[in-house]
Amino acid sequence: MTVMDLMVAMGLLMLLLSFLFSIFFLGGKAWRKTDDRYELLRNTQAVLSQISREAERSNIFSLSILPGRAVSFLSPMNAAGNFVTDTLGDVRWERYLIFYHDAASQEVRMVDVPLLAGSFERRTPQPIDRFVSAMGMRPLSSYLVGGRVLGQHITRFEPTQPPNTKHLTIHVHTVQPSTTRGPDLTLDIDTNVFLRN
User: How far apart are CA 123 and CA 91, in angstroms?
Assistant: First the structure.
């Protein structure tokens, strides 16, 4: 084997290795893009499914909306996760749930406001703005502090109620940074929930 044959063999080996590395690199990039899209969809759907599940158990008369910012309604679920009814089978409301958008952190959060034992709202649903808590009657905007994070990278959260309906419509816009140095991924989703009780 001559030096020339050895150089040709080394050149072919280098060409083959560079080809394999480029395939590996492109495959990894495609995999990361798929992961990014999945994470974007999972994050957004987690928010909408939680709100939808809770809203379906609620009553339209307890609905309160702060446009472009928050939505609140009553829940019949107690701290143990059980649906509460009286001896006649009528719903007994246990707490207000508030879902709001924190623009600074681009998160949607959930706040839980338990009803007092003798609260009028336990039997008669009404918006949280009329709820007389231990600190008195307060607007929905005063409850938008802290809470559990439901979703991140959310730039718009727009709850609305179509006129003359028992529906809650929520529009969510999510922008997630790409891990592949490409453009940010965006997603717009609308959901429509019927408040059944």
Answer: 7
| pTM as predicted | 0.80
Residues 6 or more apart whose CB falls under 8 angstroms from that of 169 comprise 159, 160, 161, 162, 190, 191, 192, 193
- The residues, ordered by sequence, that sit 6+ positions from 105 with a Cβ below 8 Å of its Cβ are 152
Q: What does the pLDDT profile of the chain (197 residues) look like in tens digits?
A: 677 778 888 888 888 888 887 777 776 666 777 777 888 888 888 899 999 999 999 999 999 999 999 999 999 998 888 888 887 888 899 999 999 999 999 999 999 999 988 888 989 999 999 998 777 789 999 999 999 999 999 999 999 999 888 899 999 999 988 777 778 888 899 999 988 76
